[in-house]
Amino acid sequence: MVTLAGIFPPMQPPEQICPVAAAAESAGLAQLWVWEDCFKESGIATATAMLATTSQVGIAIGLLPVPLRNVALTAMEIATLARLFPGRLTAGIGHGVLDWMGQVGARVESPITLLREYTTALSALLSGETVTVHGRYVHLDDVALDWPPAAVPPLLVGGIRPRTVSLAGELSDGVIIPSEPSTDEVRAAVGHFYAGRDGVPGEVVVFTSVPADSKARDVAAAVSDYAAAGATHVAIRTDEDDADLVRFVGFLAREVNPMLS
User: Fold this and answer.
1) Domain total of the chain
2) How many Cα neighbours within 13 Å face the side chain of 53?
3) Closest Cα to residue 10, out of 46, 44, 52?
4) pLDDT, tens digit, for every residue of 134-167?
5) CA torsion, points 155, 229, 243, 99, in degrees to nearest 10?
6) CB count, 10 Å around CB of 182?
7) Residues of the chain with pLDDT > 70: what percent?
8) Is 125 a domain residue?
């Protein structure tokens, strides 16, 4: 069965983070996603506030832009959250919006090379390994976490182009497909994702948006279509930046989700 999730977009003010997370938990929503856009809210800080405000709802970060973050720092932050809130965190990484990366002096010549090196190193650090690597972009010398997570949270990679999705299938626990993909795009991405996994299951997360005044049956139908195309999780936000997210996450949990059972 597909997992229905809500999205707290960084266009919303930070002071709405905790009320929306509390509403999602109260309504029984399984998962709430956040992401890190320049130059809005930190994905780690937002996830921390949500996890601390709640006790059951899963919190997922998608995406942390890897050119912006040293891999050791990201490993430290994810490990800390995983130990504080075991079993409730999912972490997603991606190569970021290249223009934004250029604005902060972090744009790289080969984003796919960086993403490969970064994903490999991050997975190893979170697994408690001591890592020495001198790649094109990632450089670690005898680095290990003092407090690795007791249970490593799922690590997902975001993208829709074949090379990135194939990398996600090879190196991570799942793929995040952003930007309201068509069902045909999801099917194609699923094929690339599973091609190198030798039958190992993974998560296929689709990000999409709907009008704030959508009917529950229409949203449920769209989620079901994505599920039929291979999505395991569908995360939804409204297409209105000033929408009432407290109401919207309740709508997803109480009105849409029962139609998916």
Assistant:
1) 1
2) 21
3) 46
4) 999 999 999 999 999 999 999 999 999 999 999 9
5) 60
6) 11
7) 100
8) yes
- How high is the mean pLDDT of the chain? 96
Average pLDDT over residues 97-126: 97
φ and ψ at residue 113, rounded to 5 degrees:
-65, -45
3-state secondary structure 82-142: HHHCCCCEEEEEECCCHHHHHHCCCCCCCHHHHHHHHHHHHHHHHCCCCEEEECCCCEEEE
81 prior amide bond cis, ω within 30: no
State the Cα–Cα distance between residues 84 and 162, nearest whole angstrom.
Answer: 35
Q: Measuring CA to CA, which residue among 259, 175, 202 is closest to residue 225? A: 259
Tokens representing 149?
A: 């997570």
Q: In angstroms, rounded to a whole number, what is the distance separating the alpha carbons of residues 91 and 12?
A: 20
DSSP state of 38: T
Residue 233: strand pairing partners? 3, 205
The CATH number for 249's domain is: 3.20.20.30
In terms of residue numbers, what domain contains 139?
3-153+210-228+244-260
Local confidence band at 240 (pLDDT 50, 70, 90 cut-offs): confident
Tens digits of residue pLDDT in 4-26 = 999 999 999 999 999 999 999 99
